[in-house]
Write a structure and sequence with these properties.
The complex is a heterodimer of chains A (539) and B (291).
Chain A: H1 2-11, H2 42-48, H3 62-74, H4 78-93, H5 101-111, H6 119-123, H7 126-152, H8 154-157, H9 162-171, H10 177-190, H11 194-212, H12 217-239, E1 248-257, E2 260-266, E3 281-287, E4 301-310, E5 313-318, E6 330-338, H13 340-355, H14 363-367, H15 391-402, E7 405-409, H16 416-430, E8 436-440, H17 443-455, H18 457-461, E9 464-469, H19 473-483, E10 497-501, E11 508-514, H20 518-526
Parallel strand pairs in A: 8-10
Antiparallel strand pairs in A: 1-2, 1-6, 2-5, 3-4, 3-6, 4-5, 9-11, 10-11
Helix pairs in contact in A: 4-5, 5-7, 7-9, 7-10, 9-11, 10-12, 10-13, 11-12, 12-13, 15-16, 16-17
Chain B: E1 9-12, H1 20-27, E2 33-38, H2 60-65, E3 73-77, E4 80-81, H3 86-96, E5 102-103, E6 125-129, H4 144-158, H5 162-167, E7 179-183, H6 186-195, E8 200-203, H7 204-207, E9 212-218, H8 234-241, E10 244-252, H9 254-258, H10 268-279, E11 281-282
Parallel strand pairs in B: 1-2, 4-5, 6-10, 6-11, 7-8, 7-9, 9-10
Helix pairs in contact in B: 4-6
Classes of the chains: A alpha+beta (539), B alpha/beta (291).
Chain lengths: 539, 291
């Protein structure tokens, strides 16, 4: 026993040693002081190293001009870059430079893409006023990208992006719904303070949108407020997660996709993140500490969306462009929120207001007044009043059969579900060729409907076999299968009815399928149930 | 997966709990007929605080229901409810459904199992007054005295009167009524769940769409300055008051809720609370006999 005691004493320790040390790395940002100047021309050295702007007068090629600007930008000399930029603009305005003035003006305009905070300097210069008519088309072409890059600066510059953002919008005559939605999407992913977002969305974009968007006023209002709502909802949700995971990542570049940089990291076996990161999660990657040669600078931080997350490896689509020292430093990660629901909603709104009747034949009705009287053909269907329904329920049934858009106000305990089931069976009978989609905000509501639908005798007669398809297969399907044995689990190629739930953050579906020949059914059951992939976590 | 599928007919249940963009998701797939079902005087979609500023929580259903009628659009209210005893239904019908919500069940179709709790003869809404203040501090509110009162109420509700027990054999059909305790505050919910282990305790939001025979509503708020907090939300009040089949027991402080006897502005919300309290019969709990 004494040996045992000694042994226990020996192994008993409070100290927990990590399997791996937390990795943290020193890195440097590029600085002008550590440059080699031998490769550059005399003028470039004079301007950039010696900060002697009077030499700009002697610049005689566009490439030399770009070299100067690029050098300043690469080394993050914002003030110096702005001074140089405005000096060149002044030179061009007073025609005291060697280069062609229009050429300078257009070069500098295109250079705004690399340094969007110079927009006010440019747009308020004499040079721009002189060449506005010639260069306006270029500006309109560049504008969506410029606006997006301004949004990306919000984390660094906060409210200072307000002024350039507004100036640029005021130069524009119109903006497409698509571009507008893309800007709002970028705001929802990259603006971290709700105040800045509110200012951009409600303070600038909203007042300007009535001028910039070509739409009926009510459509324009609904479109913008829907987008703003989605964005603000996501920003609040993302900022509620503040603590980074206790783990640093090493990132490296992995090419480009849709003009966004993709970065890759390897996850260790014991990584907290493996199994936690899901595709389309919104994450924030921040350098673990300030650079060694700029100890008081704020560490660079970028927003990204998870592209893939397998075992041992994850890739991210970066919204900000990764810095040149990406692979030299360690990165902390904050998992903000899933972007799936927000993205789906953003896309639906954009589709609805751009494609209109092409994507939804009752667009005009859903939008609200005033609308031209659109009479859709084949709307009125015969209705069979059902004795099991009361007077108001039968009225709801009649309306659903006669109108193309019906709102049923169902107070508590008024037999909503039963009414819906009867409406479904009659519609299925009258529209045998149509495809149905049934949705509700919770799994419970959908399960309830499905359960009642399969129990309904008329529904049985109609020969449809409901199939509950969901991304959380293991939980939901099994529950439903237990209730009605004739449910078949599959992803049918041409389902008659789907039920969608917004159990956030992903789609879960129920489908109802007409009984198919055995061959086809076999085929369907062989299809991989895509939800065997890690499904997104239910909140 | 459904991204490229088309659907002609779309039915959205509980459409009043979806934001407008969420409602559009199934509708932009070539829809030519849509049926939206919901109740816009119950809770809306839950959205973050800043998104409320743009009206993001207002559903497409609610926006449309307030619009004038138009050709081609049907609006029907289901006006007969099969859940509540009529004395419970009347309050919500008057306050939230323009008095149009009728009760299908006869009064005797919702019997209460005899218990030590002294239900009034006709009215199924009772008030139990609790004068002790809410607990100080904490962002989420609680009221430990109301926990005690609730515990006693539950004990009374679940105990059969001794006379029936002694004289009759237990009836097989007479199953115990389902009871749920609802409260708007998470902190109070936790306290209640710890104090009363065998009865379901839920937040109001979590109980939307469900029902129970008896609902015990613990209102928590009791202070001299008449702060109501969550209780100003009339949608939430509507949800609580429409969950019970047979009876509602409200535990609270009349003065705080109705603004009577304290110096606060009497707004519409206070008036609703006054009318609610007027509809209730006050029941005093029997004096505690320790043993």
């Amino acid at each position: 026993m004494r040996v045992l005691d000694e042994w226990l004493n020996y192994i008993d320790t409070d100290e927990v040693l990590p399997l791996f040390e937390k990795l943290d790395k020193d890195y440097n940002v590029p600085k002008l002081t550590s440059m080699k100047w031998t490769d550059y021309s005399e003028i470039v050295v004079a301007v950039v190293r010696d900060k002697n702007l009077s030499h700009l007068r002697r610049v005689d090629s566009v490439s030399e001009l770009r070299t100067i600007l690029d050098l300043l930008k690469e080394h993050d000399e914002k003030m110096m870059l702005r001074d140089t930029f405005s000096h060149i603009l002044d030179l061009a305005a007073s025609s005291s430079c060697l280069l062609d003035r229009l050429l300078v003006a257009s070069t500098l305009l295109k250079y705004l893409l690399d340094a969007v905070y110079l927009i006010p300097t440019y747009l308020q210069s004499q040079t721009w006023k002189t060449y506005k008519t010639v260069l306006e088309e270029t500006l309109v072409h560049l504008a969506p990208t410029l606006l997006q890059r301004l949004v990306l600066l919000s984390n660094e510059m906060g409210n200072f992006i307000r002024h350039p953002f507004l100036l640029l919008l005021q130069e524009l005559k119109r903006i497409s719904l698509q571009d507008f939605a893309e800007i709002v999407e970028l705001i929802s992913l990259t603006v971290r303070s709700a105040e800045v977002a509110l200012d951009l969305l409600l303070g600038i974009l909203e007042p300007e949108s009535s001028r910039l968007l070509v739409q009926r006023p009510i459509a324009m209002r609904q479109f913008t407020s829907s987008l703003f709502g989605i964005a603000l909802d996501h920003i609040d949700e993302a900022s509620s997660r503040r603590n980074p995971e206790q783990e640093f990542l090493e990132l490296c570049m992995d090419g480009y996709r849709d003009s966004h940089a993709v970065v890759k990291c390897f996850l260790r076996v014991d990584s907290f993140l493996s199994g936690v990161l899901k595709v389309d999660d919104h994450v924030r990657l921040t350098a673990s500490k300030p650079p060694k040669n700029a100890p008081i600078a704020r560490p660079f931080s970028m927003d990204a969306v998870v592209l893939s997350a397998g075992s041992g490896e994850a890739t991210f689509r970066c919204l900000h462009h990764p810095p040149s020292y990406l692979d030299q430093c360690a990165w902390s990660i904050i998992q903000c929120a899933s972007f799936v629901t927000s993205k789906t909603a953003l896309d639906a709104v954009t589709t609805f207001y751009t494609e209109r009747e092409a994507c939804c034949r009752i667009y005009g009705m859903l939008l609200g007044p005033p609308a031209a009287q659109i009479k859709l053909s084949g709307v009125e269907l015969p209705v069979t009043l059902v004795p099991s329904l009361n007077r108001s329920q039968n009225a709801a049934l009649t309306a659903s059969m006669k109108q193309s858009l019906t709102f049923i106000w169902g107070p508590p305990g008024t037999g909503k579900t039963h009414t819906i089931v009867v409406i479904m069976t009659q519609l299925l009978k009258e529209l045998p060729q149509s495809r149905f989609l049934i949705t509700a905000p919770t799994h419970n509501a959908v399960d309830n409907l499905l359960r009642r639908f399969v129990a309904n005798s008329d529904a049985k007669k109609s020969g449809v076999v409901p199939v509950r398809v969901s991304t959380q297969v293991s939980i939901i399907i099994l529950a439903v299968v237990a209730i009605c044995a004739n449910i078949r689990m599959s992803f049918p190629k041409s389902p008659r009815t789907y039920v969608r739930t917004r159990a956030t953050p992903c789609w879960a579906k129920i489908s109802v399928q007409t009984t198919q020949p055995a061959a086809k059914r076999k085929n369907a059951s062989k299809m991989p149930v895509s939800s065997s992939q890690p499904a997104l976590v239910l909140r | 997966m459904l991204r490229n599928e088309d659907f002609d007919v779309v039915i959205v249940d509980e459409a009043s709990q979806l934001t407008e963009p969420d409602t559009l998701i199934p509708l932009v797939k070539g829809c030519s007929r849509a049926i939206l079902v919901g109740d816009h005087v119950q809770l809306r979609a839950i959205v973050q605080q800043h998104a409320v500023l743009t009206g993001y929580d207002v559903s497409l259903f609610e926006r449309h229901y307030s619009l004038p009628p138009r050709q081609g659009i049907g609006k029907v209210m289901l006006d007969t409810q099969y859940r509540m005893h009529h004395s419970i239904c009347e309050f919500s019908s008057c306050e939230f459904y323009d008095g149009k919500l009728n009760t299908a069940e006869a009064d005797d179709a919702r019997p209460l199992r005899p218990s030590l709790f002294s239900w009034p003869e006709k009215n199924r809404m009772v008030w139990i007054e609790c004068r002790e203040s809410e607990d100080l501090g904490h962002q989420s509110k609680s009221n430990s005295d109301q926990v005690d009162v609730c515990k006693r109420v539950i004990r009374l509700l679940t105990t059969s009167p001794p006379s029936t027990n002694a004289t009759m054999a237990p009836k097989g059909s007479d199953t115990a009524p389902s009871i749920a305790i609802l409260t708007p505050y998470t902190r109070q919910k936790t306290l209640l769940a710890t104090a009363i282990p065998n009865i379901e305790v839920s937040s109001i939001d979590g109980f939307q769409g469900r029902e129970a025979d008896i609902i015990v509503f613990v209102t928590v708020r009791c202070n001299s300055y008449g702060d109501l907090g969550f209780l100003t939300d009339m949608r939430r009040l509507n949800v609580v008051m429409t969950r019970a089949r047979a009876g509602v027991v409200l535990i609270g402080n009349k003065n705080t809720l109705t603004g009577v006897g304290i110096d606060v502005e009497v707004d519409d919300i206070r008036l609703v609370w006054r009318r609610l309290v007027e509809r209730c019969d006050v029941v005093d709990l029997p004096v505690l006999e320790e043993g």
